[in-house]
Amino acid sequence: MKVPVNITVNGRSYQRDVEPRQLLVHFIRDLGGLTGTKVGCDTSQCGSCTVLLDGVAVKSCSCLAVQADGAAVTTIEGLAEQGTLHPLQEAFWDKHGLQCGFCTPGMILASHELLRHNPDPSDADIRHGLEGNLCRCTGYQNIVRAVRHAADALAEK
Amino acid sequence: MYPADFAYYRASSVQDAGRLMNEHPGAKFLAGGHSLIPLLKLRLAVPPALIDIGRIVDLSGVTVANGRLRIGALTPHAEVAASSDVATHAAALADAAGQIGDPAVRNRGTVGGNIAHADPASDLPAVLCALDASIGIVGASGDRTVPASEFFLGMMTTALGEDEIVTHVEIAAGQQHGSAYAKFPHPASRYAVIGVAAVIAADGDACRSAAVAVGGLVPAPVRASNVEQAVSGEALTDASFAKAAQRVGEDLGDEILGDLFASVEYRRAMAPVYVARSLSAAAARARK
Amino acid sequence: MATRLFGSGIRRREDPRLITGSATYTDDLTLPGMVHAAMLRSPHAHATVGTIDISRAQASPGVLAVYTGKDTSDGLQPMPCAWLVPDADLKVATYPCIATDTVRYVGDIVAVVVAEDPYQAYDALDLIDVEYTALPAVTNPAEAAGDGAPQVHADVDKNQAFHWAVSGGDVDAAFKDAEVVVKERIIQQRLIPNAMEPRAALAEYDQASGDLTLWNTTQNPHILRFLNSVVTGVPEDRARIIAPEVGGGFGSKIPAYPGEFITVFCAKQLGRPVKWNETRSENYQATTHGRDHVQEIELAAKKDGTITGLRCTVWAGMGAYLSTAAPGIPTILHGLMLPACYGIPAIKEDVYGVYTNTTPVEAYRGAGRPEATFMVERMVDRLAGEIGMDPADVRKKNLIPAFDDGHDTVTGLTYDSGDYPTALDKLLSHADYARLRAEQATARKSGRYIGLGLSTYVEMCGLGPSQVAGAIGFQGGLWESAIVRVHPTGKVHVFIGTSPHGQGEETTFAQIVADEIGVGADDVKVIHGDTDTTPMGWGTYGSRTTAVGGAALAKAARKVRDKAKVIAAHLLEAAVEDMEFADGKYSVKGSPDKAKSLAEVALMANVAWNMPANVEAGLEASTFYDPPNFTFPFGAHLAVVEVDKATGQVDLKRYVAIDDCGPQINPVIVEGQVHGGVVQGIGQALWEQAVYDDSGQLVTGSMLDYALPRAGRLPEIEVLSTVTPSPHHPLGVKGIGEAGTIASTVAVYNAVMDALGPLGVETIDMPFTPERVWRAIQQATKGH
Predict the structure, then answer these.
(1) I need a labelling partner for A42 at 20 to 30 A (CA). Which of B272, C38, C242, C612 fits?
(2) Domain spans, chain C
(3) One fold for both C31-135+196-248+253-286 and C290-463+629-781?
């Protein structure tokens, strides 16, 4: 029994009939082209699927599409504005905050959440704030640098 | 992972939720989904239907009125952790809410969902017991309020009836006490291997009264009454906390949980350490 | 002077697509008519398989097909093992893609479902009824090698997959004459690699032409094409293997797996593109694991700290089947490195590869070398404790003095170049080791347990040469190839046979080429990971991509440069001998204004209107580079920990790494490799372990139980380096991918044991869970 939903993703509204069991992450990935949101685990530990749901970071593998009905989702594809990278994206690039890139979309959106609450975080704050996101490549160090760098860039704006 | 199929109903009110539950036996209530959806994905839970209570208005938010701190069941953990009212009146609860899962989980997981699920490794049950919280419940047969100590009955077992949902938790506001939560998190799951909540009312440099509840290593949170008695009237020092904490063994009962990461014996040995740490942190706040 | 790009920490060229979500990993692909496969995996570690009833699954909505081992036994040949280590009595047990009569580990595939969507495929899995008769299982390699252990394969006696030995020097004399002998039994626990991207495959097969395209999460597409031809029967000329964006591997994406071949089989049968994407739970059960050694070690020495010999026996768990490269890991890549940085003069090691009812074990970052480094570096600390010397001093006493063109070991290797004493000295002075020791002493007086842990390491990487590959049973070559093609506008395509998946070679290789031929890094696009468009190569693993592939590339670029010089000379009406390549220009010596840019040369080469006599059109070159030796990066690391005596919790307070990978093409990328590698090694010491219970169930079956390093529990890693070029490499570079992991596990281990030394604790099995540390403290302090 499918259920109609209307979910706005990166500013565009999508009306779909979905199975209630469909996870939000699969809804997003099946829209066509929006595959930046990743699935890295089964148990909501890795954070690769992190998106912003009405501006708030959530793990889209632990949310049903029907729960997001009427909501606005921002994925990694929606972070840059008119072709200009978000300062977090620039910072991850500048500070070599990624290697294989698989955790990166989730990591950037989790960092977005972190800076929303704490625009001037210490390294310890950043490390604590990213505890829900796993990266196997970087050892986190350059991610911490990137978030700190982005915080500075955002403060200058 | 992919959940098995289920039907989906969205409740518009608590009454509607009860009605839907009666119409769909075996269904599960869905709030934030952070306890339930992982089970659905692993197909460890295969309910025929979900009743989504996540959109019921008036079930979310933190308020203080009539000497009571009231937290709506749909309030996400992040909001509890960030609430100045919670920090003022129930600091241990803010501590605990801020240590559940991770930031994204805290944005989505709800207080009501957490306590209705009653995972022994969850953080909130012990805190609510130590703070003598009451749990507001509504169901087909009407409203009722249950003390936290009578709400958590065992592993994943609560006083909730099939068709009942948690509406809110309430804690006495304006109490002259300090409270804190000390947690030993599992390195992978972030759940509590041990979590101890302590509430201390100070009388100068002495402890006038204390409430201590222990979770994580027991099927349902336990009030450590022996510790509470032992610490009451004593000086607010780490030495007296350490001494009183030794009594926790008498409070824990026979059923201690153990797993690959931390055995029964180890957890039993760690209980006094975390009891002492929670007392110490609570005392620091009580003195202020 | 044109800026040299070699040595510059420029931003990565890969990143724009990765930070915007436009990168395409295997699971991001969708093809018209695509359907989805899901694997039914054995819940038993060891069982016979009776009837399999697939009728309900076949009738389930959306299901196109269900296949069992009976259906695939003709279309899928057994999985080959590709590292047939010689002189080791190797017994390669039959490894079917889908089990037919017996399952041998939890995760062994018994059936596959193909359905219109993955939800339907998983629904159908629940409807397959399999009759299992459980058999006794064995999971510990040392136990599996013992008498009376359950037999994983009926035709492999005592579960012994191989017995390999290495020896050099007079080890008996070393122990007979030893003034001090220290012994230890070490468990190198089993680890789960945990590349963040689970494995996936997408197979598209044209039944009319017989053409197959397989997108797969692989570190080595060319090897996979070869193995695919063996298993699925699709000839190499008909198979195109594409490794699109690959989200980390750490060794786990080297081997070929049944999953991708079953996906190919389904695509062939159904004539529709079939995608299979493993879940993380499947990844834990069925993607290869690492380590799993039980090691017994003795070290012989003099009282003054001089190490005279090492003798050891290792039981290496191989899992239920021999994975693609598995036999070479605990043997060649392990035992040959035992002389370590000390040139230990007498070595004897016996390695028993043992089948167990567990997930196959393969290369995992460092692959054999961390396990060897651990043994030696742990024993050095034990020796230091035994003779009352500081561990730093024991190391100083034994390190091989600096050498720049070869040091022979008793295990038959020739280290290319090294300056181990300088690395250690730099580490000790940067960290202010003496002050740390003083602080440790002060802390102890106040009941705080701080520990310092050192490790030094040298690793063999840059695998080849191919002649050695043949001699050590590797069923392939270990050379690399590269093509450099300059287009008419001077823009460059580089085609390589290696297959990076996070290491950043799209950037570092562009840097190499830019300097060699005189273009900007942005003018160079590096193309990899597609067997139809890239030259043959052996893949990305063993810290070999830059060490071998980078050398091939440098040589190809130099050929282009030489040709460009000839063409430029012709255009400038100068003699070739009078030409030079300077400041990124092809100019006449002494007349810098008489010069041609690469773009000018490239235009003429491509239009070929006016070429020198006997010079072919085009500006392109290829090389096949087979290295004359391995490369041998090295370094010295220090960990500082504090142990909470009450709880056993370990706090890693500081970590300093000195690594020498030769000249660094891009120091920012090098530093990133060190960070990641160090943290993976720390993970082994402190948190990670794959645990099977006695019945063979994987107890740590998800990220809820298997503890990976998280940001909040790590200190800032201090990264320093020394630079000792490899004498035989065209660029002098050595490789850095695995260094951190090789050094860090034992550094942290030694630090924790150093902290607990005053309490009398001598050994604790990894990882240092709080309970294990607490128990060790309780045990040691009993009665005190």
Answers:
(1) C242
(2) 31-135+196-248+253-286, 290-463+629-781, 479-625
(3) no
**Rounded Cα–Cα distance for residues C556 and C494 (Å):** 10
| Cβ proximity of C10 and C666 under 8 Å | yes
Q: Which of A45, A93, A138 sits opposite C703 (nearest CB)?
A: A45
What residues contact residue C179 under an 8 Å CB cut-off, 6+ apart? C301, C302, C303
The answer to whether the CB atoms of C707 and B186 lie below 8 A apart is yes
> Bridge partners of B1?
none
Q: Do A67 and B54 touch (CB under 8 A)?
A: yes
Q: Do A22 and C21 touch (CB under 8 A)?
A: no
Q: Looking at the DSSP assignment, which residues form a beta bridge with residue C408? A: C414
Contacts of B8 in chain A (CB under 8 A): 1, 3, 20, 64, 66
Q: Name residue, tokens 């597609």.
A: C530
Contact B48, B29 (CB under 8 A): no
Determine whether the interchain pair C707/B187 forms a contact, defined as Cβ–Cβ distance below 8 Å.
Answer: yes
Q: Which residue of C has its CA nearest to A101?
A: C18
Inter-chain contact B188–C708, Cβ cutoff 8 Å?
Answer: yes
pLDDT tens figures, B70-117: 999 999 999 999 999 999 999 999 999 999 999 999 999 999 999 999
- Residue C541 is encoded by which pair of tokens? 């693993």
Is C119's Cβ below 8 Å from some Cβ in B? yes
What is residue A82's predicted lDDT score, i.e. its pLDDT?
A: 87
A111 contact partners, CB below 8 Å, separation of at least 6: A88, A126, A129, A130, A143, A146, A147, A150
ipTM of the prediction greater than 0.90, yes or no: yes
Neighbours of chain B (3+ CB pairs under 8 A): A, C
Using 50 as the pLDDT threshold, list the residues of chain B that sit under it: none
Whether A123 has its CB under 8 Å from any CB of chain C: the answer is yes
Model pTM?
0.97
pLDDT at C784: 56
Q: Which of C477, C472, C486, C484 is nearest to C548 (CA)?
A: C477
Hey, are the CB atoms on A77 and C198 less than 8 Å from each other?
no
Q: Encode B134-154: b = buried (16+ Cβ within 10 Å), e = exposed.
A: bbbbbbeeeeeebebbebbee
Which CATH code is given to the segment(s) C479-625?
A: 3.30.365.10
Query: Considering only residues 48 to 87 of chain A, which have any Cβ-Cβ distance to chain C shorter than 8 Å?
Result: 48, 75-77, 79-80, 85
pLDDT band of residue C1 (cuts 50, 70, 90) is very low
Q: Would the CB atoms of B5 and A67 count as touching at under 8 Å?
A: no
Residue B133: strand, helix, or coil: coil
Place of tokens 């290792």: C314
Q: Is residue C762's pLDDT more than 90?
A: no
Q: Which fold has domain C31-135+196-248+253-286?
A: Aldehyde Oxidoreductase; domain 3 (3.90.1170)
Q: Of the candidates C12, C196, C503, which has its C-beta nearest A135's C-beta?
A: C196
Contact A47 B40 (CB under 8 A): no
C513-542 mean pLDDT: 96
The whole-number pLDDT of residue B288 equals: 77
pLDDT in tens, C652-698: 999 999 999 999 999 999 999 999 999 999 999 999 999 999 999 99
The Cα of C631 is separated from the nearest Cα of chain A by a number of Å equal to: 23
Q: How far is C735 from chain B (nearest CA, A)?
A: 32
CA B156 – CA C236 distance, rounded (Å): 56
Measure in Å the smallest separation between the Cα of C675 and chain B Cα atoms: 20
The two tokens of residue B277 are 């740490």
CB contact under 8 Å between B7 and A23, yes or no, is no
Edge-first strand listing for the sheet containing B28-30: B7-10, B49-52, B28-30
At the topology level, CATH places domain C290-463+629-781 in Aldehyde Oxidoreductase; domain 4 (3.30.365)
For C318, the enclosing helix (H) or strand (E) is strand C307-319
